[in-house]
Write a structure and sequence with these properties.
Number of domains of chain A: 4
CATH superfamily of chain B: HUPs
CATH superfamily of the largest domain in chain A: FAD/NAD(P)-binding domain
Number of strands of chain A: 28
CATH architecture of the largest domain in chain A: 3-Layer(bba) Sandwich
Largest sheet of chain A: 9 strands, mixed
Shape of chain A: globular
Number of helices of chain B: 6
Number of domains of chain B: 1
Number of strands of chain B: 13
Largest interface: A-B, 50 and 31 residues
CATH class of chain B: Alpha Beta
Largest sheet of chain B: 9 strands, mixed
Strand content of chain A: 15-25%
Structural class of chain A: alpha+beta
Strand content of chain B: 25-35%
Distance between the termini of chain B: 52 Å
Order of helices and strands of chain B: EEEEEHEHEHEHEEEEHEH
Radius of gyration of chain A: 24 Å
Strand order of the largest sheet of chain B: 11-10-9-12-8-1-6-7-13
Shape of chain B: globular
Oligomer: heterodimer
CATH topology of chain B: Rossmann fold
CATH architecture of chain B: 3-Layer(aba) Sandwich
Helix content of chain A: 25-40%
């Protein structure tokens, strides 16, 4: 390691920054980075004397590999997942789920179509007709508790042999193994503000400034974010990470590619009652409720813990996408509630999912950098699988880096393409991504057409699919109708919101016929209380606001203000003068505001800037 | 003139108080549910001591700072990933058990033995720092017992400030009742200081400090000696959390004064 003081060239006023030379700088610690670092350290541990692992940045020292993570702790994950786990098992041949809290092999799986027992969900006439016949058939056709269980789980959804994991716990397990090798350093609580780009080359990472006010201006104790210069920068900061976003914006995306489709995953971790019949390893997938487009899940962990959640997609064009309220209605569905009603909420979590799949894939490599994981478009939209794919891309990059180090070749675009990208293109990740790339076509035109499109792609391994031209996320939000039944309900909701001070979109759901939530203080709690139960939110002082409204005039004029409805932490509220107000201390960094903004200052980007910030959800039980 | 100090900070790790903590009684006695699942943090009181110590070391060239911590190696490593970025220190880890309610005498014996074995530590220049309390399961006596075992008789508790003089003597502010401080003068090292919150803000994360610390922390963890804390016949019968009450209410139009007045009334009614 060598250090020096340099002067920042790009911005005025000039800020003196510390600079540090390392060999490999990594942004974000998740499954993809776990796969990368595990592959690298395993090869290194097998042969510590291998000259390939000698540092160029600090001659005489071993390779200097540093990873920076925004969250306070690497266990502050936000997801309970079910994953095929084949790439993870491949990295750890002696993998024993019993060593990881909340991990268990998948034992049973079912897919359910949930009918609407309330009558408030927005169902088309065709869907209502289908529901009518299902209800008519009743138990004879397999309908029980307002749910129709598919007689089999389609192969493309099947996770048999896979794993139920709590990603927070899994990350903690992987991180502790990596750190124990002493070969890599993972630093939580350290957000990366941007990549250091010269031309089209990436030369490292810039850490976020500390000791600044909300707008980023220096205050007492100012500490300019350090420049970490590296021969290779590994970008694994997820779909809304600051580094990935900056690369997309400055280097562009491949022709025809765009981040157009998103979903917000939100879930509860619930402790089941002692007499619960749900066995660890049980996996349920659902669709049809609380809105037809909202998919749901229930995964049973060991020790009577269960993850229950929903995915609210961008193609749910309704501007009132109040995910937390929807999640509360979801768990009260008669097919789930009998199992959950005596449970206790232990934790809560949420994150944005990049649902464009291969259509959102950025340039995977360039001079000095490589991209892995969800932000690199690895998630399989057909199988609903992302963790294993992300891990696999990390291992592929790890193998490529070892190959280049041993060959003494630099990390150029050409060398990374012939090693990492070539491995990825030849792998099952790429095959799956190609099969899945059009699997979501149809949902843009409605739920039934979407199901047909998904089934078509799934059953033909992607050979057949529907045609579609997805539009940018900010255009997917339907404007509030002015003079329709919905418009009248909006006025009704606005009156409610004014009367009792609750969020407008929450009131709108009530006005539409969704029943009030019967809070019990144990499982059904207010959203603000959920932020304090298990999933407490943290924000280190001294960092700038990471959510910025680009053009205030557009926000004030925006009638929908979906950013407020979809803010998972209620960190965006309606401020004075009609401008949304952001409270950094409540933000869980889910990134939903980024794609739930119906306004655009330039026709491409939304009106919300989501940049590097400190803190976020602080829960380990997920 | 600067004083050369050898500061040893005793700091335990505790389950992150921001997580859901639920007491349970197992075969080994009272404990916390899913404690292995929970991340750990440096005990907040002792963290204040560490930051104050680092400040003193920075102001007194030639001084040294050791952080002595007893806990499971894996958890210590996890905590170091955060703490090591804040201030420079040399870690002296002791690989001990997690959770439970260890006997303060056994803990103090293990810590004193470890401190006595620190190479290069001059006990005549020693300031033994720690938290005056613990965020969890603290008996509130461990630090004093360590001091006694090391033969350090000048002890101060609830410390918020220390001012060193050129002649090596120093003045200490200790918390007493009524929000006041007791001012004491001490002729010089060695001394034991159990810190309250001190006056320093939590230092910012500095990647270079982290890099430098990690060069010694990982090897130290690798060769941490084990300590088994004997119960010495001590048995904890039960444990309970303080009763909590949380009432959430959104107020947008109340003035800060009105909110303060309501809080005072509410506290007074308890």
């Amino acid at each position: 390691m060598s250090t020096s003081a340099i002067v920042e060239e790009q911005t005025a006023p000039e800020i003196e920054r510390q600079s540090m030379e390392v060999d490999i700088a990594c942004a974000g610690f998740g499954p993809a980075m776990g796969g990368f670092l595990s592959t690298l350290t395993r090869a290194w541990t097998e042969n510590p004397a291998d000259p390939a692992f000698e540092s160029k940045a600090a001659p005489g020292m071993p390779l200097q590999v540093l990873c920076y993570e925004r969250a306070d702790d690497i266990s502050s994950g936000v997801s309970g997942v079910v994953t095929p786990g084949k790439a993870i098992r491949s990295s750890f041949p002696d993998f024993n789920p019993a060593e990881i809290p909340m991990a268990v092999p998948v034992k049973s799986e079912r897919v359910m179509y949930l009918l609407d027992p309330i009558g408030a969900s927005r169902r088309s006439a065709l869907l209502r007709l289908g529901d009518f016949f299902l209800r008519l058939g009743g138990k004879l056709v397999g309908v029980k508790d307002h749910a129709f269980t598919l007689p089999w789980t389609p192969a493309f959804l099947n996770k048999h042999g896979g794993l139920v994991l709590g990603i927070g716990q899994f990350n903690q397990w992987v991180g502790s193994q990596l750190m124990a090798t002493g070969l890599v350093q993972i630093w939580p609580g350290t957000p990366v503000s941007k990549p250091l780009i010269t031309g089209r080359s990436v030369e490292g990472l810039r850490l976020a400034d500390q000791g600044v006010d909300k707008s980023g201006e220096a205050t007492d104790g100012f500490m300019a974010g350090m420049d970490v210069r590296a021969q290779l920068t590994v970008v694994g900061d997820g779909p809304v990470g600051a580094v990935g976003q900056a690369l997309d914006e400055q280097l562009g995306l491949p022709e025809g590619h765009a981040h157009r489709e998103w979903a917000l995953g939100m879930k509860f971790v619930i402790e089941l009652p002692e007499d619960s019949p749900l066995k660890p390893g049980t996996v349920w997938h659902s669709f049809g409720y609380p809105e037809p487009e909202i998919f749901g899940f229930l995964y049973v962990h060991p020790d009577r813990l269960v993850s229950v959640g929903i995915f609210v997609p961008s193609w749910l064009s309704d501007p009132s996408r109040t995910a937390y309220r929807y999640l509360q209605h979801y768990i009260q569905h008669p097919a789930l509630w009998p199992y959950l009603k005596d449970g206790t909420l232990r934790s809560w979590g949420t994150k944005s999912l990049e649902e464009s799949g291969r259509h959102g894939e950025p340039y995977l490599v360039g001079d000095g950098y490589a991209r892995i994981g969800e932000g690199s478009g690895s998630t399989n939209m057909l199988t609903g699988s992302g963790v294993d794919e992300a891990w696999a891309t990390g291992t592929q990059l790890g193998e490529a880096v070892i190959e280049l180090l041993r060959a003494g070749k630099p990390f150029t675009q050409e060398n990374l393409a012939s090693t990492y990208e070539a491995r990825r293109r030849a792998s099952w990740v790429e095959r799956g991504a190609r099969e899945a790339e059009n699997a979501r076509n149809g949902f843009q035109d409605g739920f039934i057409k979407g199901l047909i499109g998904m089934g078509l792609a799934g059953l033909t391994h992607g050979k057949l699919s529907l045609n579609a031209k997805p539009i940018p996320a900010h255009k997917q939000i339907r404007p509030f109708p002015a003079n329709s039944a919905d418009g009248l309900k909006l006025k009704e909701a606005a009156a409610l919101a004014v009367a009792d001070g609750r969020p407008l979109h929450d009131a709108l759901l009530s006005a539409r016929g969704w029943p009030e939530i019967p809070f019990d203080g144990r499982l059904l709690v207010t959203q603000q209380d959920a932020l304090l139960i298990g999933g407490k939110v943290q924000a280190m002082p001294g960092f700038a606001d990471h959510v910025v409204f680009r053009n205030a005039g557009l926000c004030i004029a925006c009638p929908e203000k979906t950013c407020i409805a979809m803010c998972s932490g209620q960190a965006i509220t309606l401020g004075e003068d009609g401008l949304p107000a952001f409270e950094r201390e409540k933000c869980v960094h889910c990134g939903a505001c980024l794609w739930n903004c119906g306004q655009s200052p330039d026709g491409v980007r939304s009106n919300i800037e989501f940049s590097a910030g400190s803190g976020g959800l602080h829960s380990a039980e997920n | 003139m600067a004083n050369v100090l050898h500061i040893v900070v005793c700091a335990g790790i505790v389950p992150d108080p921001l997580q859901t903590l639920e007491p349970v009684t197992g075969p080994a006695g009272p404990g916390l549910k899913n404690e292995m699942v929970l991340p750990a943090v440096l005990d907040p009181w002792a963290a204040s001591a560490l930051y104050e110590a680092a400040n003193l070391v920075a102001k007194n060239p030639g001084s040294k700072l050791w952080l002595v911590s007893l806990g499971p190696k894996a958890k210590l490593q996890q905590v170091m990933m955060t703490i090591a970025q804040k201030v420079a220190f040399e870690l002296v880890p002791v690989d001990g058990p997690i959770g439970g309610f260890p006997d303060a005498h056994a803990t103090a014996a293990a810590l004193a033995e470890t401190i006595e074995a620190i190479p290069g530590l001059d006990r005549t220049k020693c300031l033994l720092f720690g938290g005056w309390e613990s965020a969890t399961r603290g008996a509130g006596v461990t630090l004093q017992l360590v001091g006694e075992r090391l033969g350090i008789t000048d002890q101060f508790q609830g410390v918020d400030q220390i001012d060193l003089r050129d002649d090596g003597s120093f003045e200490v502010l200790e918390r007493v009742e009524g929000g006041k401080h007791q001012v004491s003068a001490c002729a010089g090292t060695p001394a034991v200081l159990g810190w309250a919150t001190g006056n320093l803000a939590e230092p910012r994360n500095n990647p270079q400090v982290g890099m430098a610390n990690m060069r010694t922390i990982m090897p130290a963890l690798a060769k941490a000696k084990k300590a088994s804390l004997e119960a010495n016949g001590l048995r904890y019968v039960s444990v309970s959390l303080p009763k909590q009450q949380r009432t959430t209410r959104v107020e947008k139009n109340m003035t800060p004064d009105a909110i303060a007045a309501e809080l005072v009334e509410w506290i007074g009614a308890e």
